[in-house]
Amino acid sequence: MSKVEITRLDSQQSDFDQRLDSLLAWESVSDAGVNEVVNEIIGRIRAEGDKALVEYTNRFDRMSVSSMSELEMGQERLQAALEGLPAEQRQALEAAAARVRAYHERQLAGSWQYTEDDGTMLGQQVTPMDRVGLYVPGGKAAYPSSVLMNALPAHVAGVEEIIMVVPTPDGIVNELVLAAAAVAGVSRVFTVGGAQAVAALAYGTETVPRVDKIVGPGNIFVATAKRAVFGAVGIDMIAGPSEILVICDGQTDPDWVAMDLFSQAEHDEDAQPILVSPDSDFIDQVEASIEKLLPTMERAEIIEVSLRNRAVLIKAQDLDDAARISNRVAPEHLELSVADPEALLKRIRHAGAIFMGRYTAEALGDYCAGPNHVLPTSGTARFSSPLGVYDFQKRSSLIMFSQDGASEMGKVASVLARGEGLTAHARSAEYRIKS
Fold first, then answer.
1. 377-434: per-residue pLDDT in tens?
2. Rounded-to-integer distance, Cα 289 and Cα 246, Å
3. Known catalytic residue: 83?
4. Which of 147, 233, 251, 344 is the most exposed place for a label (fewest CB within 10 A)?
5. CA distance 161 to 193
6. Given 266, 304, 332, 362, the catalytic residue
7. 333 is catalytic
8. pLDDT tens-digit readout, 304-345
9. What letter would DSSP give residue 392?
10. Residue among 104, 155, 267, 333 flagged as catalytic
11. Is beta strand 234-235 parallel, antiparallel or unpaired with respect to 312-315?
């Protein structure tokens, strides 16, 4: 395997910002051809329901089923998958689920209210969504961890019905994915995928119930479909490729850092690994570790493309400068591989998940740390957050005026409404003003 040429930048370069922006640029759902296909699929699912869903499943997943009854897996099948797992896999799955559940239980928000001196009550009522849809990739890209991360927060939030869709190309079923559905409390499972599954969840068919929100990762057709149906249903996010940014002071084993970069690069060719360090000699050491370790990786070809096209090794002035660069990137995963991560944490404003200290590999967060691994990508950590219980809850404002409160606030509302020229608003409030 020839040497991989990885982009290197220095934050003091005059064109640093421009070159970094070029490397970070990503738009995953702008392909006109994909949009055309997805819109056609959505239209047919809305018009023909189960018939179109069965037809697309047979065509795209190389299946030969005649009805939706063949594409649903009941609770007995999910439980059988769980009970059929090797003991070590079941123990690991249940241990991870317990940690994920425990973490998300701390996010559970409650309703609240308070009463003012005149008897007026104000507050907020928090309620779960009724039904949500979970998209799980199928085939080679089968991720039971994603089932746990998407379904358990919904379960903790109190969602009554969780509908999971997962494609099974060529009829190949991933038992670990079904077992994860059993552990996470999934209600119903349909073995359908692609844009057609997203459309079925968004609009409903004769068999697949319409949901309130769709969560979970997928390919460009799935991401494009999620964007297209947003508004009819809620969605979690439009996720881009996986990202990791490691800030290191130069004192961590370079093999560890190289492998941490690989851990995201192996997802797909568009994944983005970034190292930021004030120690140029250490960057050289990590580059040497990359060359040494890459031939040992099962997914070496994918990692190599990711490293060549999207990786960047950045020489920072110091750790403050490294934090500034990280905030500019707003990475999905941020490792603070430094002597005092808590001190550096104070300088971090934008990141999906922050892994603190030399021993905290990002991979632990993917599976069993507890916090959610569904994270904002492509710089969206500037304004969005990890998936959580709050994504499956709604908040309703509570307002109950006493007679005295309605009279006093009616005067205020009247003035403001008449100032806006909305006379009916003003008169509605004025009716409650005591004479």
1. 999 999 999 999 999 999 999 999 999 999 999 999 999 999 999 999 999 999 999 9
2. 15
3. no
4. 251
5. 19
6. 332
7. yes
8. 999 999 999 999 999 999 999 999 999 999 999 999 999 999
9. G
10. 333
11. unpaired
